[in-house]
Structure to design on (214 residues):
């Protein structure tokens, strides 16, 4: 059976990487975007604002991939859209919600008490985004009757990095590759993301991804 995937924000960097990887594996892909002209691939398109989606729009899919992005100054939309999707997905037992999350909510200590965002050196310009994405994870963990997965990239999330197809995963702690870097390319992130679509290993939980090589 062909897996049916809808990608929210399919025209963005992460969304495009996931779309490309999904198509390469023969998944049936639908792009959910505000502007269909930004999608150049031959896929089905739902041209809607996220918050205009209905259960009728999404219940046909096996997976809803949330690659929603927000411009600077509108980071709180990650929380708003996240809560909307949680409500939308309630009761859809055959449809999973898989979210492109952030690295900042990963823990840097063995006791799992200090997140990357809590450290003194965390860049201030990313604080609003990190806080919003972290809240999305908190809201997912508090949800009921929703099948979800939250995928955190490494702290250096490289849009131009190579697709090696080799990666390591973590549950809640920030990890480093063989070169001592917290690094993942968008392409390798998409590999891990679509692997989770095809072979669910982290239902109702979060996992993080690093490329094995920079």
């Amino acid at each position: 059976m062909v897996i049916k995937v809808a990608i929210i924000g399919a025209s963005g960097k992460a969304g495009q990487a996931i779309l490309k990887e999904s198509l390469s594996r023969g998944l049936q892909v639908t792009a959910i975007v505000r502007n269909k002209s930004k999608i150049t691939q031959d896929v089905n398109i739902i041209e809607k604002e996220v918050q205009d989606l209905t259960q009728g729009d999404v219940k046909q899919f096996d997976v809803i991939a949330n690659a929603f992005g927000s411009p600077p100054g509108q980071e709180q939309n990650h929380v708003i859209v996240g809560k909307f999707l949680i409500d939308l997905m309630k009761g859809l037992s055959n449809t999973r919600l898989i979210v492109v999350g952030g690295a900042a909510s990963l823990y840097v200590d063995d006791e799992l008490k200090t997140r990357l965002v809590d450290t003194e050196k965390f860049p201030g310009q990313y604080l609003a985004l990190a806080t919003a994405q972290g809240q999305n994870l908190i809201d997912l963990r508090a949800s009921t009757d929703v099948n979800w997965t939250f995928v955190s990239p490494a702290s250096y999330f490289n849009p131009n990095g190579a697709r090696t197809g080799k990666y390591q995963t973590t549950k809640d702690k920030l990890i480093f590759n063989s070169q001592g870097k917290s690094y993942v390319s968008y392409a390798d992130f998409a590999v891990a993301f679509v692997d989770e679509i095809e072979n669910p290993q982290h239902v109702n939980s979060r996992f993080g991804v690093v490329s094995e090589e920079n």
In short: The beta strands are 4-8, 28-33, 44-47, 63-66, 96-100, 147-152, 156-158, 167-170, 183-185, 205-211.
